[in-house]
Amino acid sequence: MFTWIGEKVEAMGPKGWTLMGLVVVIVLLLSAPRVPANHEAGGRSGFQCLSGWDGSHRAMVMAVTSALRDPDSFQHVRTLITPEDTAGQHRILMTYRAKNGFGGYNLEVASGAFDDASCRLTSIQLGTEN
């Protein structure tokens, strides 16, 4: 297949290579990761407080793992946050898995709030997902 494409591009001459380069650039631009608009403008949306690796809030993970029977069994599933409220707080909901007393894993949730400016966790509540 690539040989066929190369032959067609070669047959078109310089225009073919220009067209092929343009196609490659367009594909690369379309496959680039998207960044929220307010993040590009330097706005603070709460995402600056989340891990770039798995999207977790580090302080919340530390608070949850310290309350677990087996802290090494913690597995982050996802973290959701709300837009900043008038007090500068974001509500946060983190879903995770952890071992129960019988060695099996439960899916659980922790909720709370954190400050937009400092990323400091201001409240936390642990619970089990129904």
Keywords for this entry:
single chain, alpha+beta, 4 helices, 4-stranded antiparallel beta sheet, 2 domains, 130 residues
Account of the 3D structure:
This protein has 130 residues and is an alpha+beta fold. It folds into two domains: 1-32, no CATH class; 44-128. Helix content is 32%, strand content 28%. It is built from four helices and four strands; from the N terminus they run H-H-H-H-E-E-E-E. A four-stranded antiparallel beta sheet has the order 1-2-3-4, covered by helices on one side. Helix 1 crosses helix 2. The longest helix has 17 residues, at 14-30. The chain is elongated, with a radius of gyration of 23 Å. The chain starts with a helix and ends with a strand.
User: Helix/strand/pairing class, anyone?
Assistant: alpha+beta
Instruction: Estimate what percentage of residues fall within beta strands.
Output: 25-35%
Rg over C-alpha atoms, rounded to the nearest angstrom: 23 Å
Total number of domains = 2
Percent range of helical residues: 25-40%
Calculate the mean pLDDT score and round it. 82
Specify the biggest β-sheet. 4 strands, antiparallel
Q: Note the gap between the termini.
A: 52 Å
Number of strands: 4
From the structure provided, what is the oligomeric state, counting identical versus distinct chains?
single chain
Please tell me what the overall shape is: elongated
Q: Sketch the topology as an H/E string, one letter per element.
A: HHHHEEEE
